[in-house]
Design brief:
The structure is a single chain. The protein has helices at about 25-40, 90-95, 110-120, 135-140, 145-160, 170-175, 200-205, 230-235, 255-265, 280-290, 305-310, 340-350, 355-370, 375-390; strands at about 10-15, 45-50, 65-70, 70, 80, 100-105, 125-130, 160-165, 185, 215-220, 245-250, 270-275, 290-295, 315-320, 335. It starts with 10 loop residues before the first strand and ends in a 10-residue tail after the last helix. By secondary structure, the protein is of the alpha/beta class.
Length: about 400
Amino acid sequence: MSVHKLFSSQASTVGLFCDCFPPVMDGVAVCMQNYAHWLQQMVGSVTVVTPKVKGADRSSLDYRVIDFFSVPVPGRPPYVTGIAEMDPIYLTEILKTRFRIVHAHCPFATGLAAQRIAKVQGIPLVATFHSKYRDDFSRSLPKVAVDLVIKAIVEFYEKADLVWVPQESVIDVIRSYGYKGKVEVMDNGSDLVADYPEKYFVEARQSLGIGPEEFVLLFVGQHIWEKNPRLVIDALALIPDQKFRMYFVGEGYAAKEMQQLVSEKGLDGKVSFVGSIKDREQIKTYYAASDLFLFPSLYDNAPLVVREAAALHTPAVMAKGSTAATILKDGENGFLVDNDPEKLAGLVKELIHNPERVHRVGVQASKSIVRSWEDCVGEALDRYNVLLASRGLPKIERLP
């Protein structure tokens, strides 16, 4: 266990708990990172609780991190888990820390730790429901075991004082699991919000060696079949005569199989696998250099990557009827397509020949679905204070 920021007092205004945190990178980790950063700016004395990750260097962070002994999640590298209270050094530190409110971003190891702390200290617990957990566990567990896990997840959220989802459509997901309590929508943000001059986009393409006439397609996310990358690869194989370049950014258990499929389809010269990118400036370059973001996932609830791409004027193509796609209006701030390779191929071909339309929709996406993390976290803080007031507890004051 390591504490990467020394404080004169062990009092912590907000405790943020999550099983994934950089250097493990996914949408929830990015969310946690931005909550921690902006809350530290707004109120100070923020503490992140997360499992220990080998090689993690958190010395430059301006907020406190307490990590605890962990083990790898079977079949899901680089994810880790553990039982926080089994780490005596974690226990020593956490027992010295007094929180005002705790916010769990997952219902597993750290979520349960947050739940126990809230009970012991008599403080509110906020819990955000981020993911389609049933889909995650159905891949490796029999149905009877999955049902037991989902039951435990629902019980976790039933014990929270406030339950948030990042998108309206995700309410249907948590309801389908059996949760009947109150749910509020709390938007996720983007750390890529800014006014970018046209020169920035030109330089981004030049830095990646992209010609001015090339149409660039992008996928960013875990390389897992649940995110539907097979649809993208199968569709691109149907338009070999079109001039495009496709980048897959990320890592995951299906990465090698995806690369093999690309080779089998004869797309090696058009499709590149970049691997995981942890540097935010570098990933911004890929968003800025791309024309279209292909993300037909049937698995995701509210993927941050769609909003990140939109921040750089890159509109998304998403699957009709998917939970994630409900933020888009077809042809206005994104594009919707049936879960069919021929339909996707036809749409991509049409858009390759209409770059002005793609650009127009991308600009509208940046205006309609992108919100800064600073704004989102500020609203979250206001909601924390409403909850604290309802419990007769003092509100969290903002720093001057």
